[in-house]
Amino acid sequence: MLIAENVRKVYRVKEKKGWFRQQWTEVEAVADLSFRMVPGKIIGLLGINGAGKTTTIKMCSTLLTPTSGTITVDGYDAVKDDRFVKAKVNMIAGGERMLYWRLTGRENLQYFGSLYGLQGQALRDRIDSLLLQVGLYEAANTPVERYSKGMKQRLQIARGLINDPHYLFLDEPTLGLDAPIARQLRKHVSELASQHGKAILLTSHYIHEVEELCDEVYIIDKGRLVAHDTPEHLTKSLHLDTALQVVIPSLSDSLDYDLRQLALDYGGSREIAETDEQTWEVTLRGKTDMTTPLLSLLAAHQSPVLRLSTQQPSLEDVILHMADRRGA
Amino acid sequence: MKQLGSLLLAEIIKEHRHSFHSKMIYFSLLVWPVINFVTAYYSFAPFRMGADSPLARFISYEQLPLFLLTGYLGYIFYWCLVQSSWQMSFERQAGTMEMIFISPVNRFAFLYGRSLSSLIEGVWLFFCFALLALFFVDGIQLSGWWAPPLAFLILLVSAIVWGGFLCVLFLFSRDASFLYTVLDEPMLIFSGVRLPPMAFPVWAKVISFCFPLTYALQLIRELLMEGASLQAMLPSMGLLAAVLLVLVTATVVLLRQAEKHMKKTGNMVMY
């Protein structure tokens, strides 16, 4: 198990004040953060830009030293026993860096495998198996510079798995990928946890990705933990509004008045917009389900319903809500 | 040991594919030093090189080609490693440096492996040229068959140690490329590649003794030009060994500091 306890990271940042003067300021990237990674589970780290997600990943993967607090991996301290920890962790980042573009996919894996002490037949077998896993076996001997963005990302995954890590850190792994490739990668990540027992920490700007993959979510803001729960509990616990949307062909003044009254009665709000098809889209937001009274009201006004849909609050709403609340 | 071999092989393949991907690069690696060598030789031509010339106290005119050949051979060995260390900034930009340091690889194996692979790729062609040229130049004096292989070994080991030290310096900062300017041309001027350091004024001698190449060239010339016996070379060998020991110690200390610094500041990804 990876246990991070009260981890804090402070950077000293130099600010230029003219030609010769400079001033050092301290920036707290991560503050008092605690979390756990358990084999077979995927945890998500969410937050707006500059929340401290990448810094957290780099501390867990031994690339950065925490200013205070401890990170232990299967009992080994990530700072004092970093050689042991390094053998158990790996990181995959989104984008096209962290690979040697002039080398082929196979040569890249050979190089990175040798950094972990893999050699000979064992290394060759591992490379073949990973290339098959990520669907790059046919392109193994093609230089990476000729790979598409999706192929490079899949090679990144193979590279991140070369040492068969117990703990895997994924920093925006689907950044800039086309939807079908991103979906394929999500499936692969899910299998890594469920079938191969990897403990995975995922950061992503795509909230639906976190909702789909993560067993637990940690929401951080300016380096501080502001919420931690399962994605479902997080959306429920904040009692965010459910949006009920109905499309009707016409809107009389009396119906408009009754809709506003209905929303007020249930402690919610009402929004009305005219669509391009000359119909009206009514949205009722509230914590209580207003479907039945809304349908009764429309029946009373003899208004046909062209479309009806309910939108439950998403994790994205939770993040935006928290960002608004903390910004206020 | 087997693991080290595997790492070295992977490092050689990486360097080969990454930095020596075109045959034209090998062509330039031969032509450039040959042109330098020929230019240096003919630069002396307009000057008086007789027995009463100022340089005659240090080298004879007959031995000038051999002097320059050994000088340039040594310089190419060391120059390759200045170039290779400079390439560390590429690793920083490409993000591959993070992937190296996230792994448990022995840092010294990585540094010296990198140096060795750059060296092999960078010098083999000029080395072959120098070896062939040795048959055609005057003034070779050997005290045994072992002298040329020993000279090669001295160059190889000292250059690798130098390369490891330079790599560490480039680990500290993305702005370390100024070292390239500081180390490249002064090394050519002051290390005794074209002129014997003993012919320099005192201030230049002081600079020349800051470069390990000076000590290595001294030994190579004792071996190939003076036919010195092993016993006679002991003081020079001791001096080079001491210099290399200082470099290795500095590499060990600086590597620890550099990694600590990178982990503290996060500058591993800054470029």
TrEMBL record, chain A:
InterPro entries: AAA+_ATPase, ABC_transporter-like_ATP-bd, ABC_transporter-like_CS, ABC_transporter_ATP-binding, P-loop_NTPase. It holds the Pfam family ABC_tran. GO terms for molecular function: ATP binding. Keywords: ATP-binding, Nucleotide-binding, Transport. It comes from the Bacteria. Residues 2-247 form the ABC transporter domain. Belongs to the ABC transporter superfamily. PANTHER family: ABC TRANSPORTER ATP-BINDING PROTEIN (PTHR42711), ABC TRANSPORTER ATP-BINDING PROTEIN NATA (PTHR42711:SF5). This is ABC transporter ATP-binding protein. The lineage of its organism: Bacteria, Bacillati, Bacillota, Bacilli, Bacillales.
UniProtKB/TrEMBL annotation, chain B:
Its main location: membrane. It is found in: Cell membrane; Membrane. Pfam families: ABC2_membrane. Keywords: Cell membrane, Membrane, Transmembrane, Transmembrane helix, Transport. InterPro entries: ABC2_TM (IPR013525), ABC2_TM_bact-type (IPR047817), Nod_factor_ABC_transporter (IPR051784). It comes from the Bacteria. The keyword Cell membrane applies. It is a multi-pass membrane protein. The chain crosses the membrane at residues 24-44, 64-82, 119-137, 149-172, 202-220, 232-255. Residues 24-258 form the ABC transmembrane type-2 domain. PROSITE patterns: ABC_TM2. Belongs to the ABC-2 integral membrane protein family. This is Transport permease protein. It comes from Brevibacillus porteri. The lineage of its organism: Bacteria, Bacillati, Bacillota, Bacilli, Bacillales.
